[in-house]
Amino acid sequence: MTSFESSSLPVDQLESLRFKANQIIESIYGLQRTIEAGNQNYMPAWPDILSKYNMLLSQTHNFSTALVAPVQGATISFGANGVPQISKPTAGVNPYEALALHPSVGMSDTQLDNEVIPLLRNQQTTDVLRMENDTVRRLSEHMATRGALGVLGAVLPPPPAIGVLPRKPEYEDVLRECDGIRAAHDQRVERAVRAVAMLRDKFELRQRVQVEVEEPEELSWDPRLGMPAEAPGGDAGMESAEEEGSSDDDEEDVAEGELVGSSVATDSPAAATTTSGLFAFAPASVTVTPSNPMTGSTDVSMF
Question: Locations of Acidic residues compositional bias (predicted)?
Answer without folding.
Answer: 240-256
